[in-house]
Write a structure and sequence with these properties.
29% of the residues lie in helices and 22% in strands. By secondary structure, the protein is an alpha/beta fold. Helix 7 runs parallel beside helix 8. This is 3-oxoacyl-ACP synthase.
Length: 339
């Protein structure tokens, strides 16, 4: 009998270049009213994309582990390709077509997700689960590239700001299949449309992002905006995580591993405490990689699997929020091992 369960079968990741230390940004630091804000306490290290490295390059390199463990045919025969790129190589379209071509795929579905932000992996899991369960294929590849750190935040004018020292670059891919090996137990996705547009690009003098002019674009943070984002993130991530736990009948403090996005240490601590998860069961790589945006969850999960922190039979709870709080999601998987 054909299994109708959908599993997160495997993950594989890529971190570009050598680690860049906090000292790199300290040498450029200018006068910044937000420098002392808890949002911008820098990680020890992070990685940056190379100047000529594309999102498609990053995804191809992230796929190496999947190909090594499962064979090239598993990747080339993918039915559904779901991508998310923080900074698209071209502003008019996503990376899906380029990734499919580079990896020799002919998928029936190619979906480029943009609204998922830092919770894009959870959103992509939900889309993949729904499509495969409805008969649209037997396998899906989720591909996420975070490439803003070395491109946006390392601009000469932007790297003087406190915000520039937080992001890091990386890519991740996940294989989702019709299987009962590592079943996706439940997913919760919530859209908070009232907060859409609260994250903005700031330029001096002001202009639209595509218009030419002096001054480089950065995130338009203010003390008021930061306070709102902290309040929303502190609330939303535990809410979606608890919703999933309630439906699968498990207390969050009893899960095997919690994996979240990692904007900063404050969120990591607050989420762990709100869900009553011990520090040793909340995996993050903030001090090694910084804020990895949408790639954070799969990169952290890959590290936990490789280190033996998560074992076959453990429940992995993933949760994140996006942008200034306009989207949040959580998912639970019973990990079955890489096999």
């Amino acid at each position: 009998m054909t299994s109708t369960a959908v599993s997160l079968t495997d993950v594989s990741t890529y971190l570009p270049g050598e680690p860049i230390s906090a000292d790199y940004y300290a040498q450029f630091a200018g006068s910044d009213d937000l420098a002392a804000n808890v949002m911008f306490r820098a990680p020890k290290f992070r990685h940056h994309v190379a100047p000529d490295e594309t999102a498609v390059d990053m995804i191809e390199r992230a796929c190496a582990g999947l190909i090594e463990r499962h064979g090239y045919d598993v990747i080339s025969n993918i039915d559904v390709l779901i991508t998310h790129t923080q900074i698209p190589d071209m502003p008019f379209y996503g990376a899906g077509g380029g990734i499919a071509h580079r990896l020799g795929m002919r998928p029936s579905w190619v979906l480029d997700l943009h609204n998922g932000g830092c919770a894009a992996f959870v959103l992509a899991l939900n889309v993949a689960r729904r499509l495969l369960a409805s008969g649209e294929g037997r396998s899906a590849l989720i591909a996420i590239a975070q490439n803003a750190a070395g491109q946006v935040f390392d601009q000469p004018g932007v790297r003087r700001k406190a915000q520039s020292a937080i992001p890091g670059d990386g890519a991740a891919v996940a294989l989702v299949t019709l299987s009962d090996r590592s079943p996706i137990l439940d997913v919760e996705c919530r859209t908070y449309g009232e907060y859409a547009g609260d994250m903005t690009i700031a330029m001096d003098p002001p202009r639209k992002w595509w218009q030419p002019g002096p001054g480089e674009g950065c995130i338009g943070f203010t003390e008021t905006k930061i306070a709102k984002v902290l309040a929303r993130g502190n609330r939303q991530v535990p809410e979606v995580a608890l919703a999933v736990c309630d439906r699968i009948g498990l207390s969050p403090k009893d899960i095997g591993l919690l994996v979240t996005n990692q904007p900063n240490r404050v969120f990591l601590r607050n989420w762990r405490e709100a869900l009553e998860v011990p520090r040793e069961r909340h995996r993050h790589t903030f001090d090694e990689c910084g804020n990895l945006f949408g790639a954070g969850i799969p990169i952290n999960l890959d590290h936990a699997i490789s280190d033996g922190q998560v074992n076959a039979g453990d429940i992995v709870l993933m949760a994140a929020f996006a942008h200034a709080g306009d989207f949040a999601g959580a998912a639970a998987v019973r990990w079955g091992g890489r096999g």
